[in-house]
Design brief:
GO terms for molecular function: ATP binding; ATP hydrolysis activity. The protein has about 325 residues and is an alpha/beta fold. Helices cover about 35% and strands about 30% of the residues. The strands form 3 sheets. A 6-stranded mixed sheet has the order 5-6-7-3-8-9, with helices on both faces.
Length: about 325
């Protein structure tokens, strides 16, 4: 399988200017400015295969948006190599833009004062999409995203959720093999998010569309991506399977028990004495929590022992969320 994206030793540096103090300093600033070089993306390398859905994650200022801007040809790298869809995004700009779709959650590619379908027609001409191609592809996109009732409305009259669905449709008018999504579900309600996620899964399966997704909503990543690339301070600190990340840095599982009878921590410690388990009690809710390693056999044995000894009202198994794992990695560092 060929690579949709190849990044080698990519670096982007910016000049950060500082002002001198006082009137004298202001005059000197007119002639020469003090500055220091700040690396936004610092020597990163990664590949994305055609058809992959990859989550590109990191805290604010980690370098995510700067990377996306270099991959889409908006910014020129300071050094390093970027090949996307077999082209240099900056050098082959005119040919390159017809092979990608881009959705920035904070910026619109639709014209604000005209009807949505007029924006679609303009983009159809820009991308030189034939009437037949447009009808075949966009009829499905419009139906799946449920935007037909919105086509005659000016963009300024749409809610955020309606606009984002139209933005996604606009990015797919030319059915590009590669889609960049930068915070596509920011500020959206749960139902709209679910619809967008289902749609992205569908186009990935139907057209083998490659998707690179940056988001702060880690439920988007969990729903769509098997692989994550994690950025911190301009450097990649993890590149691999989301499942492996959870297995390696997840802090076990929590099994919550509610009982039909009076139970003390001492009773539970006695019942599970031979198992490696730590018991905690929530006095208000009368919930007892067993904290154990993520081992299916150990968990099954623990539950069997407790069920055999006590009358159970309810059991709930919780695993460490991706959000908690990633927060822990940023707080404590990866090792």
């Amino acid at each position: 399988m060929k690579d949709a994206i190849t990044v080698r030793n990519l670096k982007k540096e910016f000049k950060a200017y500082s002002s001198r103090s006082g009137l004298k300093g202001a005059f000197r600033d007119l002639l020469t400015r003090n500055y220091k070089i700040v690396p936004a993306v610092n020597n990163i390398s990664f590949n994305v295969k055609q058809g992959e859905m990859v989550g590109y994650i990191g805290e604010n200022g980690a370098g995510k948006s700067t990377t996306i801007k270099m991959l889409t040809g908006i910014l020129t790298p300071t050094s390093g190599e970027v090949i996307v869809n077999g082209m240099n995004p900056h050098r082959d700009r005119e040919k390159f833009v017809s092979t990608i779709g881009v959705v920035f959650g904070q910026r619109s590619q639709l014209w604000w004062d005209i009807a949505v379908q007029e924006s679609f027609r303009l983009l159809k001409k820009v991308y030189k999409v034939s009437d037949e191609q447009y009808e075949n592809h966009m009829a499905h996109v419009i139906k799946t995203l449920d935007i037909e009732p919105l086509l005659d409305k000016p963009v300024r009259k749409l809610s955020l959720g309606q606009r984002m669905r139209c933005e996604l449709a606009a990015a797919l008018i030319h059915n590009p093999p590669l889609l960049f999504l930068d915070e596509p579900t920011i500020g959206l309600d749960v139902l709209v998010k679910l619809r967008i996620r289902e749609f992205l899964k569908e186009i990935n399966e139907k057209y083998n569309t490659t998707i690179l997704l940056t988001t702060h909503d880690l439920t988007d990543i969990e729903a769509l991506c098997e692989r994550v690339v994690m950025l911190d301070d301009g450097k990649i600190i993890y590149d691999g399977a989301l499942k492996s990340l959870k297995e390696k840095w997840g802090e076990g599982k929590e099994i919550e028990f509610q009982f039909l009878e009076e139970v003390e921590l001492a009773d539970l410690n006695k019942i599970t004495a031979s198992s490696e388990v730590k018991w905690e009690k929530d006095e208000k809710k009368a919930i007892f929590t067993a904290v154990v390693e993520e081992d299916d056999e150990l968990i099954s044995l623990l539950i069997a022992k407790v069920v055999a000894a006590l009358k159970i009202k309810d059991i709930n198994i919780k695993e460490t969320s991706t959000e908690e794992i990633i927060r822990n990695i940023y707080d404590r560092g990866i090792s």
